[in-house]
Amino acid sequence: MLVIVSILYYPALGFGLYRFILYQKTVTKRVVKRIVVDDKGVHYERKNGTTDHILYHNLEKYHLTDEYDVDLSPRNKIYVLKVKHNGSVTEVDFDGVDADYSCYIVNLRALRRRYIQGIIYFRPDLRINPSVYTAYNINPVDFTFDKKKYGTAFAKALAVLILLGSILGCIMLGLVKWLSKDQIYLH
Q: How many Å apart are CA 145 and CA 110, to the nearest integer?
């Protein structure tokens, strides 16, 4: 039986490790070292030396009347900007890809705000979905971070977590009391 299991297990383990190594190689090629937002657009400097650009003048309008030109796209429980760039839909990611989780982008909010502000100034013909401002807590008038909205959302989430934790704690305490009452001691 052990021989049959090892014949199936070790090739599967080897194939899994091979796929994992290939995945790590592709991810490390995409690792972003630096993100710059300027008057031309956003520039991604990768660790392998290449630079990717999403420039304002290459952004395109959607020809549908009910479609916003700049919108949000959900990815891994966060929202990223979705624009039409050079004929295809592109996600503008300000988190970058880091396979080792060795760096953290400190000015993430400022980069998003600056890019959206650049779209407004350099491409006023593009329509931005109002939910972009809400999701990123940006004031659409002066492009400042709306601390009040962010604080309110954080306080609501914290209150829900505390409430759920309290309810779960009460249920667990009730179960412990109920189970300990019916327990028979043998001496």
A: 8
Phi (first) and psi of residue 152, to 5 degrees: -65, -45
Q: How many residues does the chain have?
A: 187
Q: Which parts of 85-141 fold into alpha helices (H)? A: 108-122, 130-135
Tokens matching residue 35: 């993100």
Q: Tell me the per-residue pLDDT of 171-187, one tens digit each, with 9 for 90 and over.
A: 999 988 888 876 666 55
CA 76, 113, 129, 56 torsion-angle sign: negative
Render pLDDT for 14-41 as a digit per residue (tens, 0 to 9). 999 999 999 888 777 777 778 889 999 9
Strands (E) located in the chain: 32-37, 41-46, 51-55, 59-60, 70-75, 78-85, 88-92
- The one-letter code for the residue type at 165 is G
Q: Looking at this protein, which amino acid is placed at residue 15?
A: F
CA distance 85 to 78: 21
Radius of gyration of the chain (CA): 25
